[in-house]
Amino acid sequence: MAKSIFPLVFLFLFPAYIFAGIRNKPRNIIYVEVMGKGGYGSLNYERLIFGNKLLGAGLGAGIGTYNIFDYEGNFNPDLIIPLSGSVYFFSPHRIEVGAGNTFSSIVHTGHPGPGTERVNSMSAGLFFGYRYQRQINGIIIRAGYSPVIEFYSRIVHRAGVSFGYAF
Fold it and tell me: Which domains does the chain carry?
């Protein structure tokens, strides 16, 4: 009987032990990133999926743009949607490492004639940097190197800075 109960107890208690580090801590982050994975500027949301004083992990999504108007002056924004995962070490001054994919929908001039056309593409991205985030609600600051592998074929080097709030 004890052998049959142990696996059930383990299944119920082990997840509680693993995720106990995120109870009563900020699990949601909203931040603005400048010159990072989302173009010139992006608004991002991140959800903490694991965290304690030494290690944290989160998943995030955002929306950014390069241009709001197309070449003819019409409202036709470029859309950049980064999806990412990050792991951070130590607290409150953290080393952050992340990776993800970015969907882009960019307006180009029409070829061969006049007009515009929208070109959709996917790119991969990485993030290596610094993150300041305390274990309580409050501001977060990020700065780092964000290489983007555009169209999965060429590397574009970027550096980004982020400011936001964790709650």
Answer: 48-166 (2.40.160.20)
- Quote the pTM value: 0.78
Residue 125's DSSP bridge partners are 100, 148
Residue reference for tokens 């909203």: 30
DSSP string, 13-55: HHHHHHHGGGTTS--EEEEEEESSTTTTEEEEEEEEEEE-SSE
Q: What is the pLDDT of residue 8?
A: 45
pLDDT digits (tens, 9 = 90+) for 23-42: 557 899 999 999 988 888 89
Structure tokens at 64: 């950014």
Spatial separation of the C-alpha atoms in residues 64 and 38, rounded to whole Å:
5
Name the token pair of 85.
């995962």
Whether residue 56 is predicted with pLDDT greater than 80 in this model: the reply is: yes
Residue partners of 139: CB distance under 8 A and separation at least 6: 132, 163, 164, 165, 166
* pLDDT bracket for residue 17 (50, 70, 90): very low
SS3 at position 90:
coil
